[in-house]
Structures are given as C-alpha cells and as structure tokens.
Amino acid sequence: MLILNVTDIHGNRKVVRELYREYGIDYFDLVIVNGDITDFHGIDLAELILSMLSRLGKETLFVPGNCDHPKLLEIDSLGGAKNIHNQIMRLQEHKDLTIYGYGGSTLTPFNTWIEFPDKKIAEDTEHIQKPHIVVAHTPPYNTKIDKTWMGRHVGSKSIREFILREKPLLSLHGHIHEARGMDNLGSTIVVNPGPLRNRYYSIIKLKNDLSIDKVELLQLKKD
Fold it and tell me: Taking Cα atoms as reference points, which of 221, 172, 176 lies closest to residue 195?
C-alpha cells in the first residue's frame, strides 16, 4: 500500500500542481493531509486544494490545521477528501487499516483559528483504542518533530501520551515547519514531512500485513 503524506500547504496551489505533474491521477492508494490546507482563508480555497490532492489517490483523508477555517471541523468531506477529525476511519479498499485523526493545534500565543487546550485533546483521545495510524496536525511533545528554531518543544503532551498508550505503527504530523524529520516514540514512528508549501512531503509504503516497509522524506525539485 502506497501513501502520500502532506501537510502545511498554506494555500500554495502551484506546488500542489507540481506534485500532480510528478505523480498523476490515482498514483497512490491513499493521500493523507495533516492540516493547514490554507493560510486563514475560507472553505472555497480548502475545497479547491483538497480536490487537487484527491486526484492523486484512490482515497484521501484530511484533518484541518490551526490556520484553517473553523467550519472545516464540521464538514464530513470536502473536495473528495474525508475529514477524520476526532474519529476512527476504515478505508474502503483496506478495511483492516484503522486511522484516527485530530486537527488543530494546542494553544499558541498567536490566537489562530483552530486551537484546543491540551486537556480537551486528552479527553477526546481517551476512548480511542489501537489505531494503526494517527494523523494529527500538532506533533507529540518532546520529540524531534516538535522543536522550534528557538530549541523549545511545543507539541502536545496529550498526543504524546496517547501514542505511548495505544502504540500505533505510525503517527503523522505537521505544524512545526522547521521540525521536518522522523523520530521514535516508544514503538511508533512519528513523522513530520515538512511543509508542502516548501515542496516537502513524504511517501509511506506498507506491506500486506500492514507493517511499515519504508518511510521516505522527499522534496519536489524546483522548476
């Protein structure tokens, strides 16, 4: 199973078109979008970008980021992509694979559009059991993927505790643009592919038994 993982697009339609030219229609089994589809824009731009990304895969899932419009929290699907904020999803063609999503971020000094206290994230995730993949815009606290340029860890302690408790195979994140990379949290591989706005993305390959074959951090070449 081949998965395309992108995050932090921030309205950059040009780079989404470049990604489409690189791979083409339905190249991937699944496209996962980790949030910040737009940069404080409305639903229309989010729908356009998601519709472009959805052409790349047989199925597309997304969570909104903290810079997306709050109405995205209420929408079941948009642009051919399914919203998995705070819910477990089974794929149509791979029903054994379970994916849990959580959008927005923890509280920031910038009062962005979708933010949650860490206590609420803990309450929302306490009943979720054993997903294979977690998709959350905000990264887990105290990892390589939540560290700012200033050296501060700013991720979610509740997301960290959730991952350690439920032990998913893979957990996919964004939000901290400069923290592109991978880390291990217990038995889980945690990934921040870097902002697609800057041409960063990742490709994940799962084996038939749903174990991880490989995770690649990639960058589109400039024209």
Answer: 176
Taking all residues of the chain, what is their mean pLDDT, rounded to a whole number?
A: 97
Please count the structural domains in the chain.
1
Report the CATH number at residue 163.
3.60.21.10
Percentage, residues of the chain above pLDDT 70: 100
Domain, as residue range, for 167 = 2-219
pTM: 0.97
Decide the pairing of beta strands 115-116 and 105-106: parallel
Rounded CA separation 137/78 (Å): 18
Give kind and range of the element (H or E) at residue 219.
Answer: strand 212-219
Query: Predicted confidence band at 189 (pLDDT cuts at 50, 70, 90)?
Result: very high
Q: DSSP string spanning 30-98?
A: EEEE-S--SSS--HHHHHHHHHHHHTTEEEEEE---TTS-GGGGG-SEETTEEE-BTEEEE-SS-TT-E
